[in-house]
């Protein structure tokens, strides 16, 4: 496992957040809304696919992802938001690189591939978090954190709506994406 993944596992296993390690106590006022332009036209297939990936990475790292036009916002504590952006950019690049070696069959094929990879990554992140939430104290910590996060999201985005992503039509590309999602590291490899 990469160092970032191991740190997250240890924090969850010991009922801690990175902020608790750095500071004795964090307040609900610590939540930030940090946005980023990912450079994709809002009509592109990449916007919905990328929002799905960003939402999965954010959700399992104590943050929430919101789309506002061409910008994506992450609501969460600063250290968690930074970790989300780093992991998201790493995974997005890795998925697009993997898709780039596939035969070019158009945007529907690439969309299905990306969604297959993203949904598999989301499932892996969910299972990783569930393994650490078996202890009642951990469950209470996560519930309290999620409650504060929900309140912060409501403050920044009072009229937010949930959106769903249509299922892809190319099952072969989706299956290839799932295989890619199973093999990608859930943390950026360290370089020396």
Can you describe what's shown?
There is one protein chain. Helix content is 59%, strand content 10%. The chain has 192 residues and is mainly alpha-helical. Helix 5 crosses helix 7. The two termini are 16 Å apart.
Q: List the uncertain runs.
A: 22-27
Task: Please give the radius of gyration in angstroms.
Answer: 17 Å
State the helical fraction: 55-70%
Question: For the largest beta sheet, what order do the strands appear in spatially?
Answer: 1-3-2
Structural class: mainly alpha
Please report the total strand number as a whole number: 3
Number of helices: 7
On the 0 to 100 scale, the average pLDDT is 76
Quote the distance from N terminus to C terminus.
Answer: 16 Å
Q: What attributes does this structure have?
A:
192 residues; mainly alpha; three-stranded antiparallel beta sheet; 7 helices; 3 strands
Draw up the topology in text.
Layout: H1 3-13, H2 18-22, E1 31-37, H3 45-59, E2 64-68, E3 71-77, H4 78-100, H5 107-132, H6 136-156, H7 171-183
Antiparallel strand pairs: 1-3, 2-3
Provide a concise account of the structure shown:
With 192 residues, the chain is mainly alpha-helical. The protein contains seven helices and three strands, in the order ααβαββαααα. The model is unreliable at 22-27 (pLDDT under 50).
């Amino acid at each position: 496992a990469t160092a970032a993944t191991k740190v997250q596992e240890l924090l969850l296993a010991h009922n801690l957040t990175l902020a608790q390690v750095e500071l004795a106590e964090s307040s609900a006022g610590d939540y930030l809304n940090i946005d980023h332009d990912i450079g994709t036209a809002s009509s592109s297939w990449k916007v919905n696919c990328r929002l799905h990936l960003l939402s999965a990475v954010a959700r399992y790292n104590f943050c929430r992802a919101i789309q506002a036009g061409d910008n994506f916002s992450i609501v969460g504590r600063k250290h968690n938001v930074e970790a989300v952006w780093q992991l998201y950019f790493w995974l997005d690049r890795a998925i697009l690189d993997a898709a780039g070696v596939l035969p070019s069959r158009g945007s529907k094929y690439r969309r299905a591939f990306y969604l297959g990879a993203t949904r598999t990554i989301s499932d892996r992140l969910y299972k990783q978090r569930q393994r650490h939430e078996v202890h009642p104290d951990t469950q209470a910590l996560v519930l309290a954190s999620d409650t504060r996060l929900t309140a912060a999201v409501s403050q920044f985005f009072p009229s937010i709506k949930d959106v769903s992503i249509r299922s892809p039509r190319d099952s072969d590309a989706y299956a290839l994406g799932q295989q890619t999602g199973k093999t990608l590291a859930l943390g950026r490899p360290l370089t020396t």
